Amino acid sequence: MLLAACSSTKVGPGYYRVQSGDTLTKIARQHNTSVSELMRLNNLSNPNRISKGQLLRVSAKGGAAPAPAATPTPSPRPAPTPAASAAALRNLKLVWPAAGTVTQRYNGSSSKGITIVNKAGTPVVAAAPGSVVYAGNRLRGYGNLVIVQHSGDFLSIYAHNSKMLVKEGQKVSQGQQIAEMGGTDRSGTALYFELRHRGQPVDPSGALPPR
Fold first, then answer.
1. What value does the mean pLDDT take over residues 67-79?
2. Mind telling me which PROSITE patterns this protein's record contains (predicted)?
3. Pick the residue with more confidence: 38 or 76?
4. C-alpha span between 78 and 76 (Å, rounded)
5. Per-residue confidence (pLDDT) for residue 91, from 0 to 100
6. Number of DSSP helices (H) and strands (E) in the chain, helices first
7. Are β-strands 177-180 and 123-125 bridged in parallel, bridged antiparallel, or unpaired?
8. How many CB atoms lie within 10 A of CB 60?
9. How confident is the model at residue 2 (pLDDT cuts 50, 70, 90)?
10. What value does the mean pLDDT take over residues 34-61?
11. How many domains, the chain?
């Protein structure tokens, strides 16, 4: 009851309290801003990880934040179990995001994704249909980065691009070119591709065709 009461507490101008069913994309549209701007204002590293009751700054012109005592501590969303992620992955059919040589695969520890090496300018395509929730270079270590949100709580990440060809909020189809391979924020030209389920990295090989 206390958490529910806090969640309905009126917030100051320039701020928004996350409600059930909200996504960062939805909140950005409601407040006429972009996902990347919300991530910048709130120091977020993952656009898929927000919680009901969380207080977000939605405008750079907002006044002082409400007193911390009025802000509940949101309960973190439970991480999916490996079995749940594996079951969801079986319903996801991906295409390879780029042609080239796979030099590193997901291993769950030192590598959370796969690395594909090819020449600069090689087309990078959406592995599945979805919506672009991030296109920018504000996340250190990823260079020019595109993040696409898919059904089933999946996100795909495409890093180190030389050129991005899509904008936030844009719908993309499977196989549509979204970027060109590059080497931003890394040594050498390659695509770093990562798949996440409810914010947690998962092995994409089960949903990709054999190569």
1. 46
2. LYSM (PS51782)
3. 38
4. 6
5. 82
6. 4, 13
7. antiparallel
8. 10
9. very low
10. 84
11. 2
The token pair that represents 46 in the structure block: 């993952």
Structural domain harbouring 46: 15-57
- The H or E element that residue 84 is part of is helix 82-90
Mapped onto helix, strand or coil, the DSSP state of residue 43 is coil
| Neighbour tally for 132: CB within 10 Å | 21
The residue among 157, 152, 156 whose CA lies nearest residue 88 is: 152
Grade residue 182 by pLDDT with cuts at 50, 70 and 90: very high
Q: How many Å apart are CA 139 and CA 141, to the nearest integer?
A: 6
Which is more confident, 89 or 203? 203
Cα 207 to Cα 86: distance, rounded to the nearest angstrom: 10
Residue 36 has pLDDT above 90, yes or no: no
Q: Give the CATH number, domain containing residue 19.
A: 3.10.350.10
Residues 190 and 103 sit within 8 Å (Cβ to Cβ): yes
- Is residue 9 included in any domain, yes or no? no
Q: Report the CATH number at residue 201.
A: 2.70.70.10
Which element (helix H / strand E) includes 125? strand 123-125
**Which residues neighbour 66 within 8 Å (Cβ) at sequence distance 6 or greater?**
9, 11, 12, 15, 55
As a whole number, mean pLDDT of residues 75-97 equals 70
Q: Token pair for residue 82?
A: 């490996």
For residues 106 and 156, membership in a common domain is answered with: yes
